[in-house]
Amino acid sequence: EAEVAQSPRYKITEKSQAVAFWCDPISGHATLYWYRQILGQGPELLVQFQDESVVDDSQLPKDRFSAERLKGVDSTLKIQPAELGDSAMYLCASFQTSGTNTGELFFGEGSRLTVL
Amino acid sequence: DAKTTQPNSMESNEEEPVHLPCNHSTISGTDYIHWYRQLPSQGPEYVIHGLTSNVNNRMASLAIAEDRKSSTLILHRATLRDAAVYYCILRDVAQGAQKLVFGQGTRLTINP
Q1: Residue B59 CB coordination number (10 Å)
Q2: How far apart, in whole angstroms, are the C-alpha atoms of residue A115 and residue B13?
């Protein structure tokens, strides 16, 4: 069964360092999402892509966070510099925009970030 | 985005049915009702969704009130593997972007 791949699974870094997360969505899924989930809370949408274009990045802290999906396939989320409050699970999800779909978003297992 | 209200936590026993409620009094005519669940240390996974009629699949059933202001996710025979956080989410298909806005969800505990 096709899956959304994310790496790294775990990342520990010191504050002020740069961090990057990678996501490879299910093949053919044009819509890709990055969510952040702080422990004990529900996921919060950071950015949404349609192919290579950003559709919604209203909740992305743009002074330190950036996201790209250059060829409309895989995507990278970067944090520079990392702060203590960035410790969270970063989740990637993809959605099949066209054709028959159940309205189902497919999530990866996430990348857990700890900032010391 | 229309908002949903769920209990913070619920508890049930193994092999018994579980009814997880969700209130969405401000739902619009084009909002689909989605349910996702999140097992410990995993990403959310899709459970079921519906618009007006009750829906069944291999995982669960979704009962939607006639006025659509509430819905109930039904797990017919809970197992220990069903222990998770369950999220009830509204998705507006009238909007071009398919965006899911998660709330706090209901933490379901299953007792052996």
Answers
A1: 15
A2: 38
pLDDT for A2-54, tens place per residue? Answer: 799 999 999 999 999 999 999 999 998 989 999 999 999 999 999 999 999 99
CB atoms within 10 A of CB A35: 25
Whether pLDDT at A100 is above 60 = no
Cα–Cα distance measured from residue A88 to residue B60, given in angstroms and rounded to the nearest whole number: 30
Distance from CA of B9 to the nearest CA of A (A): 12
- Kindly list the distances between the CA atom of residue A12 and the CA atoms of A6, A19, A84, A86, A89, in Å, as whole numbers in the listed order: 16, 9, 11, 11, 12
Residues in chain B within 8 Å Cβ distance of A56:
97, 99
Q: Which residues of A touch B49 (CB under 8 A)?
A: 102-104
